What we know:
Strand content: 25-35%
Strand order of the largest sheet: 2-1-6-5-3-4
CATH topology of the largest domain: D-amino Acid Aminotransferase, Chain A, domain 2
Number of strands: 16
Number of domains: 2
CATH class of the largest domain: Alpha Beta
Oligomer: single chain
CATH architecture of the largest domain: Alpha-Beta Barrel
Distance between the termini: 28 Å
Number of helices: 7
Shape: globular
CATH superfamily of the largest domain: D-amino Acid Aminotransferase, subunit A, domain 2
Helix content: 25-40%
Amino acid sequence: xxxxxxxxxxxxxxxLSVNNRGFNYGDAVFETIKVSHSKILFWEDHYFRxxxxxxxxxxxxxxxxxxxxxxxxxxxxxxxxxxxxxxIRVKLVVFRESEGLYTPNTNNISYLISSKTLNDNFYxxxxxxxxxxxxxxxxxxxxxxxxxxxxxxxxxVIGGIFAKENRLDNCLLLNTxxxxxxxxxxxxxxxxxxxxxxxxxxxxxxxGIMRKQLIEIIKLIPEYTIxxxxxxxxxxxxxxxxxxxxxxxxIQPISNYRKKQFSTGFSKSLLAKxxxxxxxx
Length: 281
């Protein structure tokens, strides 16, 4: 079942116009959200990021598109799918209505919410081998639009195929300044001694919800410092640890970048602090 503009429907009964602007022009934004036992994790952060993204894309935000309204729409779908006592991945897509060409006829929006069951209630530490390399066929633009969760994701799709063809678990994306920006599906953090770096939004990385949560946690650890600063590819092999973050898997340590192997001590301890924050929220 999915939630299509407030209507709970079977997936097979949902139809989108062939003129859908999200499909034709990438005129859509989305949020990927984790819900655990009917609790939407970091919901306020997701909501305000969605509102900011819609404003940047000049979408008309309906008066009823409140924090409480969208929360209820998500939980309505969770209940319809009998997932109230499970952990699930929710995708909320907002797209502009119109049959116009590049210039829309109207600025009204529609939304679609779908869900998928996950295995773990809390974030688990994965210490399996996890190999990454740089993807250099195409580059991200260090601009505001690159920070949005839009459905303009061609570089991620092609990079994913490149990773599969080269037996990699993920790829690291570069911007046009040749700085490391993020992975295909996650933000990146670099640990060197007691100093931690993550690329700034001005480099073009996604404004990740988990990125924000972990920056807040790290700032509370007195023996470590955190900096939002550009990361050059040369720094990767000098790092003690590299790890990736998103709201679905939490923290994923990188074990290998080319011939370099990394430790995982800090990311493991950070994951424990993250789970404490989730439990107490």
